[in-house]
Amino acid sequence: MPVCHEKFDEAIDAYNKFLESFSSQPQLALLAYDSLGYCYEEKKDYKKALEYFQKTITPHPGLGEIGYLNVGRCFQARGDSEGSLNIYKKFLLEFPDSSQKSFIQDKIKGIELKYGQASDVGKISH
Questions:
Q1: Residue 77: exposure state from Cβ atoms within 10 A (0-12, 13-18, ≥19)
Q2: Predicted structure pTM score
C-alpha cells in the first residue's frame, strides 16, 4: 500500500474515533464527515466519499454550498451524470444567489451537451 494511502487510512481512523465521541454535536460531526469524504476521495473510493459528503448536505443547511459541490464532484468522478446533474440543479434551487452560480450552470450545460438533456442522462450513465 502506498504511504499516502496509509496516511489517509490513519486520518480515517482518527475521524471515526472523533465521531464516536462527538457525534451528538452536529456541527462537529459535519466537519468530520466532510474530512472523511476528502480522505476517501483522495483514495479514489468515490462511493465512500459520496456516502460521507452526502451527510454534509442533510439536514439542511449542512455545510451549505461546499457540501453540494463535493457531492456533485464525486458523482462526476463515478461517472454518474444523472446524479451530478440532479445535485447541481438542486444547488441552484438551494443557493440561487451563490457566487458559484455561473460555475454550476456551466457544469450543467457541459453534462447536458455531453449526454443530452436531463431525460436522456439516466439512460446513458447506467
A1: middle
A2: 0.85
